[in-house]
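Appendix B, record 7
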Amino acid sequence: MTTIRVAGPPPYDVVIDAGALGSLPRLLGPARVAVVVADARLADRAEQVRRLLPDVDVTVELVPSGEQSKTVGELDRLWHAFATAGLSRSDAVVSFGGGATTDLAGFAAATWMRGVRVVHVPTTLLAMVDAAVGGKTGINTDAGKNLVGAFHPPAAVVVDLDLLSTLPAAEWTNGMAEVVKAGFVADAGILDLVRDDPHLHARELVERSIAMKATVVSEDLTEAGRREILNYGHTLGHAIERREEYRMPHGHAVSIGMVYAAEVAELSGTARIGFAAEHREILSGVGLPTSYDADAFDDLYDAMRLDKKARAGRLRFVLLSDVGKPVGLDDPDRELLAAAYERLVAS
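Structure tokens (predicted):
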């Protein structure tokens, strides 16, 4: 078993192994009551979690799959479930699902009694390498994605690699966007493994992606500094998700967003010529999209201005001058962004 420590406050462990789910009782701590918040598609597997905790009063709450679960209505329903279960500050929430389930369950735990323990059991590649690690939680509103949320680090994260064996191909592809992102922003070795054969190197890709994120969030829990690099590709990505009413998978939107960020970097003179083409090659090679609707720029520009990374109504982009060399771009000209978008859709 691989254990990656994420520095606090409070510190916690990410345990990674085939069959790691068996470590859940130890990591859950002295809880008397636990509420398992599970993706509705995983109802049978959620019962497996219940059986692992014979000495705990476990309630399983099923939530809709994907971003459609991250609503005020679902949050309110979970609060009522916590009250019915008698969840106290000494008890715990367990998330069991993909990134949306992790975000929702984490935010419900962060706000119940001003914060109860949560242990994340991510079941998708994307959730394993991104959503479950770092303590970001939140829901979506009409104004945008994750604009309502809280930083609430988990008590532990359980990454059971056996869950990848039954992961649909589309979910694997979706998660690869965050793996590739980890490579571009901080670990060029990840990109080499992806070029070779991502399935062959699945465990190493998961471990290296988590280790990268753990290092960054340990230095900057609340996105006051270096953690901003993890938003690479997300400014346009979140705008696309909002325009698509969250019907497009997160990884697909971020993939397009990374290519766009590379185009902006090239046009602004921040990155070398050919950097965007390198993005397209790697991302399309794992089955991810690298272009979008030619007529969407005006809508996307307005949505980007509402992004969490904007400051005083001024857009801010995370760019790369090269692999592993992040830079910020504040308040870029609309003309520059429009020109980069033209190059994106022409690819």
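Remarks on this record: The mean pLDDT is 95. The longest strand covers residues 144-151.
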